[in-house]
Specification:
With 901 residues, the chain is an alpha+beta fold. 23% of the residues lie in helices and 30% in strands. It has 15 helices and 47 strands. Strands 14, 20, 21, 24, 25, 26, 27, 30, 31, 32 and 33 form an eleven-stranded mixed sheet that branches. It has a seven-stranded antiparallel sheet with strand order 34-39-40-41-47-43-44. The N terminus is likely disordered. Bound molecules: alpha-L-rhamnopyranose. The site of alpha-L-rhamnopyranose has 10 residues, from helix 4.
Length: 901
């Protein structure tokens, strides 16, 4: 045999072998890649199987975890198909330690993969006694009017060669920290926002490479932040405390194995910073002339600095960081320099975003740059800030003069598309301005595109609403004097949120604050962290965040721990409603109701879609109880399951008696009333179809417009589709005038608005008292767009996309729609195209999952896959037909179906 022949036969064989073998990749610990500072004793491991072969499944796995003293956990071969969130059960972990792990799997052909690359995780402080540091505060009387940022510094000697060093740090206020003159890490607005008195997160940074053997210095700037800044209204400040403080500890391990700990203590120094004042709502005033050059480096002369005061406080509220920190993301250059009719100099960044502007400037000492922020221009084209209410949203920089200076603010953020420059020294060069976005560093997970440019813009706006308002906590809005964790908005948008970004850790963390701030009687606050007081809670549809988001996280991520952790909080909320009910009817207390529903200005003509608030309350009461039943089932708590099942029957019976006529008419004839009653199964089977018809008729009676507010909107199209009115859902989706999803798009929106008519057709604005142009609640339609329109969903019997459902709903005149989602198993994708002589459908199913696919076709003989009749494709199982669809069962792989007309 000549050489050529040998090569050509051997090569394909090698390729075949290497591709046929399953691989393990994308190792996650606690849903993150190589995290440090974990605060859990039992981290959860997730991995992905990669294989070019269809229908690849895991039948067994083996995990090895090692620490610096050897093996911590060896599972041996475990017969299991679980590849998501496998709980560590080895030797107890120690604080501030690094562990590595590796995994191999066996597939359904019984073949083993190679061992994966090793991943690692590091534990944080697992016991409060690990803290050796002391809380420090400024050693001088703070300026209580301007409340400038405060600097803390300390010089120390690291005597030997450094093997590793971790910085543990948190603050009363927001902090930024430097070591030897350099910023530590790339996180902003740390330590993030939690219910500080009960839960204050610390961060851990690996600073091994930032330290040197010899003299080092650490310096931190601390500003008001959420801790003691102005929040909510009526001069509400100092919510968590009056004084700024810092707690920091560097744990150093030297190459010779010895250790040293550097801590905040009485040896530190303090001084005022160049940040003259800084508030979340009002922005920052910074005077570069007061910068202290070299302040965070060794050798700096701090003789003029004051000492610090020690604060004796326990560490019980300290907790490791669970969510992704806020980081910088996209940047934007101005698309236009505008001189407005009233003569203002305005830069337009083309996108309503959240973050700040980095500005380059050269000038004389004392020159001032004043930057104001706005979301919109008014009808005349002038800079409009009335809707920011009391928030000054201004960044002021005073130059020190000389070389070019670069400014960006600290400890604040702005929601804006436009900036206005007042008295700018010299000519404005747009090149010197860069808008930088800031938001929690969630992984982007979803894509969604269609043949309709307006709908694609709507999706863009939904994603940007999420970017702007997932800033450590889910906020309602990012620009006015509010920016609070409104619970109703968060629950309404939570399912959609899971499609755009990975929000498992984001919500797990925030839900702990929901529980922490829950009142002893079970009432859940309007906003979390609660800054509105003990009585500001218990509203239907807001407080139900306690049950709805945990369940949504379980559905989207298969996260059972979030259910376990939140279960007491979920139960307490239901208990609250039960206690507030009489004869199983919850018809008392304050409720926001179907917030911002359709209410035209021409009052009293009967068109305002007012839904009885207690009818809404009863629906959400039932829904929360249903979610408890589901959760009790998942947690194998049959006693609770039985108890809540019994309760639910009573709640529904009371609903029927109070709000439904014998023929099935609801006392409120609104879209929201029918949507909630149908979505939460409040009506007996026999009354549902005609209720759905009433809903569809109602839509028609408003000339094919929606009239729903925050509570009805998320389920509107969902219910229409469920009861066979997808055509009506599409009509609503595609409606272009007020009220509709596309109306703001047509008005040039780049984010979702708080109100359907934030800006009216005549370009005037809704009341400035409440008119945000970046509010994600109405973006909840995204859920329907992914799950129903494209049809990419998970089954509840295989949550987290272990059992995928692909059921497209073709319509609305679209010629294509497709979506993809990064799940813990890998990429799930689906998409349909209307072709000249039929339709085509693509699906991508990751290894170790299965999918049920619904293909719109009257029978299986009309369908091909990869050019072959599906009956002849071994990997496809034909299950049957259902409502005009052929139903197929497949395993992992990529599939291209064609349905011929
Ligand atoms: C306003 C906001 C927020 C909403 C509350 C009830 O402050 O619109 O989104 O949840 O009211």
């Amino acid at each position: 045999m000549n050489k050529k022949v040998i090569l050509s036969t051997v090569l394909p064989l090698c390729l075949l072998i290497s591709f046929a073998q399953v691989k393990v990749q994308h190792l996650l610990t606690e849903n993150s890649t190589n995290p440090i500072g974990l605060g859990v004793q039992q981290p959860r491991f997730t991995w992905q199987l990669m294989s070019d072969k269809r229908n690849t499944k895991q039948t067994a796995y083996e995990i090895k975890v090692s620490g610096n003293k050897g093996t911590m956990w060896k599972t041996g071969k475990v017969g299991s198909d679980q590849s998501v969130q496998v709980v560590y059960a080895g030797t107890p972990l120690k604080s501030d330690n690094k562990y590595t792990w590796t995994i191999r799997v066996w597939d359904n052909d019984g073949k083993a993969s190679a061992w994966s690359e090793t991943a690692f995780f590091e534990t944080g402080f697992l016991n409060t006694s690990d803290w050796k540091a002391k809380w420090i505060e400024a050693g001088f009387t703070e300026d209580s009017i301007n409340r400038p940022g405060i600097l803390f510094r300390h010089q120390f000697n690291a005597s030997k060669k450094i093997k590793s060093a971790n910085l543990y740090i948190t603050a009363h206020g927001m902090y930024e920290v430097q070591l030897n003159g350099k910023r530590v890490g790339d996180a902003y607005l740390t330590p993030g926002w939690t219910s500080y008195n009960k839960r204050l997160q610390y961060q851990v940074f690996d600073v091994t490479r930032m330290l040197i053997s010899g003299n080092n210095a650490i310096g931190a700037t601390v500003g008001n932040g959420w801790y003691r800044g102005y929040l909510a209204w009526s001069d509400n400040k100092n919510i968590y405390g009056k004084k700024l403080g810092l707690l920091a500890q560097i744990n150093i391990v030297y190459s010779d194995g010895s250790t040293e700990i550097i801590v905040t203590d009485e040896k530190w120094k303090s001084a005022n910073s160049a940040i003259k004042s800084v508030e979340i709502y009002n922005g920052e005033r910074y005077d570069a002339r007061d910068e202290k050059s070299g302040w965070s480096s060794a050798g700096y002369n701090d003789a003029a600095w004051k000492g610090v005061n020690l604060l004796s406080t326990d560490f019980d509220n300290l907790t490791a960081t669970e969510n992704e920190l806020v980081k910088k993301h996209e940047t934007f250059k101005p698309i236009k320099l505008i001189t407005t009719p009233s003569g203002e100099k305005v830069l337009d960044f083309g996108q309503n975003l959240v973050g700040w502007v980095v500005v380059k400037a050269k000038g004389n000492a004392g020159d001032k740059i004043v930057i104001k922020h706005a979301e919109v221009l008014d009808k005349a084209g002038n800079f409009y800030t009335e809707n920011l209410r009391a928030a000054k949203a201004t960044a002021t920089y005073i130059l020190k003069g000389g070389a070019e200076e670069i400014f960006e603010p600290h400890f604040t953020f702005f929601g804006f598309r436009y900036i206005k420059l007042d008295n700018y020294p010299g000519e404005i060069n747009p090149d010197n301005f860069t808008a930088v976005t800031l938001y929690s560093d969630m992984k982007p997970t979803g894509t969604f595109t269609t043949s309709n440019a307006l709908i694609n813009q709507l999706q863009h706006n939904i994603q940007w609403g999420q970017r702007g308002n997932f800033l450590d906590v889910p906020t309602d809005c990012p620009q006015r004097d509010e920016r609070l964790g409104w619970t109703g908005d968060a629950q309404a948008f939570s399912r959609t949120a899971t499609f755009n970004f990975g929000v498992d850790n984001f919500f797990s963390k925030w839900l702990k604050d929901v529980a922490a701030d829950q009142e002893p009687n079970g009432s859940v606050p309007f906003v979390v962290p609660n800054v509105l007081g003990h009585n500001a809670g218990g509203s239907a549809g807001w407080a139900d965040v306690a049950t709805i988001i945990p369940w949504n996280m379980y559905l989207a991520y298969g996260d059972k721990k979030v259910l376990e952790t939140q279960y007491p909080s979920m139960k307490a909320w239901v208990k609250y409603m039960t206690n507030a009910s009489k004869n199983d009817l919850w018809n008392s207390g304050f409720h926001f109701g179907d917030w911002l529903f359709y209410r035209p200005n021409d009052d009293n003509d009967g068109r305002a879609a007012v839904t009885d608030k207690y009818l809404i309350a009863q629906c959400f009461y039932a829904h929360s109880v249903q979610l408890l039943i589901n959760t009790a089932k998942v947690l194998n708590n049959s006693a609770d399951e039985a108890m809540y099942t019994d309760l639910l029957q009573k709640i529904k019976a009371a609903f029927l008696k109070e709000y439904v006529t014998p023929s099935g008419r609801l006392v409120s004839g609104t879209q929201t009333a029918y949507v909630l009653a149908l979505n939460f199964d409040m009506l007996p089977e026999g009354l549902r179809a005609q209720a759905a018809t009433r809903l569809a008729d109602n839509v028609k009676s408003y000339d094919n417009h929606l009239t729903t507010g925050f509570l009805g909107t998320p389920y509107l199209c969902e219910v229409l589709t469920r009861f066979g009115y997808t055509d009506v859902a599409y009509t609503l989706l595609l409606q272009q005038d007020y009220p509709s999803w596309l109306y703001p798009v047509k008005m040039g929106a780049t984010t979702i608005w708080e109100r359907w008519d934030g800006q009216k057709p005549d370009s005037t604005f809704q009341t400035p008292g409440m008119n945000s142009f970046n509010h994600y609640a109405y973006g909840a339609i995204g859920d329907w767009m992914y799950r129903k329109m494209v049809g990419l969903d998970t089954y509840e019997d295989g949550v987290g996309y272990k059992h995928i459902k692909i059921q497209p709903h073709i319509g609305g005149g679209f010629t294509n729609a497709s979506a993809s989602l990064q799940t813990y198993y890998g990429t799930v994708a689906a998409g349909w195209k209307v072709e000249a002589n039929g339709i085509s459908l693509d699906a991508e199913i990751p290894a170790n999952t299965t999918a049920t696919i619904y293909i719109p076709a009257s029978n299986a003989t009309l369908i091909t896959e990869g050019g072959k009749a599906i009956s002849g494709v071994a990997d496809i199982k034909i299950i049957g037909t259902e409502d005009g669809d052929v139903v197929l069962q497949v395993g992992s792989g990529k599939y291209h179906f064609v349905v011929n007309k």
